[in-house]
Amino acid sequence: MGVNHQNLPNRLATRFAGVDLESVASVRERITQCPASSPSMALFKDGKLVYFMPGHQIEGRSVEEIARDLRAVFDQHCA
């Protein structure tokens, strides 16, 4: 739902911590200021982390709430 929006990042990717070990490690190296969290979502702009949503902001929330937050972040950073 969050990516059904007019403003989106140039690229979208999914990494699964228990499966994509090397890929997840590479992403985590770029998110050093935030503790590892699964699930989580991150937005990078020009190679720099501009937004991070840790697991505690995902779990227990509705899809609509999470999508609303992501769309607001996309509007701020991807417009």
Please, could you describe this protein's structure?
The longest helix has 16 residues, at 63-78. This protein has 79 residues and is an alpha+beta fold. Helix content is 32%, strand content 14%. The chain has one domain (21-78): 3-Layer(aba) Sandwich (Glutaredoxin), CATH 3.40.30. The protein starts with 20 loop residues before the first helix and ends with a helix.
Order of helix and strand elements from N to C terminus: HEEH
Q: Provide the domain count.
A: 1
Average residue pLDDT: 94
CATH superfamily: Glutaredoxin
Strand count, sense and barrel status of the largest sheet are: 2 strands, antiparallel
Strand content: 5-15%
Largest sheet strand order: 1-2
CATH class designation: Alpha Beta
What value does the Rg take, in angstroms? 13 Å
Q: Kindly state the number of beta strands.
A: 2
* Alpha-beta content class: alpha+beta
Please provide a brief summary of the model.
The protein has 79 residues and is of the alpha+beta class. Helix content is 32%, strand content 14%.
From the structure above, extract its key features:
79 residues, alpha+beta, Glutaredoxin, two-stranded antiparallel sheet, 2 helices, 2 strands, 32% helix
Task: Please render the helix and strand layout as text.
Blueprint: H1 21-29, E1 41-45, E2 48-53, H2 63-78
Antiparallel strand pairs: 1-2
